[in-house]
Design a protein that fits this description.
The protein has 366 residues and is mainly beta. It folds into two domains: 114 residues, no CATH class; 214 residues, Porin. The protein contains one helix and 19 strands. It has a twelve-stranded antiparallel barrel. A five-stranded antiparallel beta sheet has the order 4-3-2-1-5.
Length: 366
């Protein structure tokens, strides 16, 4: 049914509510999926991301101590989180290890000498398990939640145009991309908005947010499954609110240090709440492609393509193309060219079927 056009504040609240839930899911899933609990022979335990392992040692990254190398003879066992019985039968509850403090110095665990008499490399310093409260403001969190604060990378972009003369016009753009890697998972968060006016008439007013989590099936990370969700609004296209959720499989056709090309196949459920038109809900297939390429030291290209034909009506489809060219100016600033093109085979009444947006922005890497 048709509905009144909501105020900007109402639309913002609805979109942010949906995007907040999507973001929380996208953060918690990778943390739970990649956490390891390492039990040491001296009674301590460390919780973090397992970076590498072999027959002699493992390398673990923890929020409290960073990158830690542990010899095999220091380790009692390694378990996936959540651990069924952290303390073991008949033992007191295990206490999370903490950051060493001046009043409670760290205890070094001495390795056992090899049979040949050679002594292994000095082990890492590990905080005693009795130090449960000293040294870190994050110890009130569960061990797995410490991963919320590590491995964040991204780029925030802002751009604006202004013209005064026969026609007075102004436009503002903002875009944020955040990537978090944890174990075999990669979470991508994107938020974009634009607003513009010509002679006091609004000609652009849109906001869109996306959350997507990839979970690799193998250690090589070529095959992965994904889940995604998004929400937004577009006043010019007469969309009060649109949101979607979907899942599928992906395969990295090219996976190199400077070039990654992936193909995806899945399904999605999308809802459009139109202004002065009947609402619409679609179940569609999704064919996707993603490319990331680093050219030299200063140029980076990211590109996405999605094609979503409806299951019930193949003539009802959407094509979404995104392209970003980033050139490093000097750390941490970048100059960016963004292209976004959306094509709807069945757009809202009174709107064009194609929507092309081109913007230039200044970005900050973090």
């Amino acid at each position: 049914m048709s509905r009144r056009f909501r105020s900007p504040v109402e639309r913002l609240v609805r979109v942010c509510r949906v995007f907040l839930w999507l973001g929380l899911v996208g953060l918690v899933v990778p943390i739970l999926a990649g956490t390891k609990v390492v039990f040491l022979r001296n009674g301590d335990r460390l919780t973090g991301e397992l970076l590498s392992e072999n027959s002699r040692r493992i390398v673990l990254r923890t929020p409290a101590t960073g990158r830690v190398t542990l010899q095999r003879d220091q380790i009692e066992r390694i378990e996936e989180f959540p651990v069924r019985d952290l303390a073991g039968p008949g033992q007191p509850p295990a206490v999370p290890s903490a950051v060493p403090s001046a009043t409670n110095p760290p205890v070094a665990v001495a390795p056992s000498p090899k049979a040949t008499g050679a002594v292994t490399n000095a082990p890492p310093t590990v905080a005693p398990s009795t130090n449960a409260v000293a040294g870190s403001s994050l110890l009130w969190l569960p061990d797995w939640a410490h991963g919320l604060w590590t491995n964040w990378h991204g780029n925030v972009q802002i751009g604006a145009n202004l013209g005064v003369g026969t026609a007075n016009w102004q436009s503002t753009y903002a875009n944020a991309n955040v990537v978090k890697k944890w174990g075999r998972t990669t979470t991508l968060l994107n938020y974009a908005l634009s607003y513009g006016m010509v002679n006091d008439v609004v000609n652009a007013n849109r906001m869109y947010g996306t959350a997507k989590t990839d979970l690799a099936w193998t250690a090589q990370k070529h095959v992965y499954s994904y889940g995604q969700g998004s929400a937004g609004y577009d006043e010019i296209r007469r969309i009060n609110v649109e949101y979607l959720t979907g899942a599928g499989m992906g395969y990295k056709v090219i996976d190199r240090s400077k070039t990654v090309l992936a193909a995806e196949l899945g399904a999605q459920y999308q809802v459009f709440d139109y202004f002065k038109a009947d609402d619409r809900a679609d179940v569609a297939a999704r064919f996707g492609e993603n490319l990331t390429a680093q050219i030299g030291k200063d140029v980076r290209i990211t590109q996405q393509l999605g094609f979503t034909p409806g299951f019930e009506d193949f003539t009802n489809y959407q094509i979404r193309f995104g392209f970003t060219l980033s050139v490093a100016l000097f750390k941490p600033l970048t100059l960016n060219l963004n292209v976004l093109d959306n094509y709807f085979s069945q757009p809202a009444p009174g709107t064009a079927d194609n929507d092309l947006q081109v913007s230039t922005t200044i970005g900050i890497n973090f």
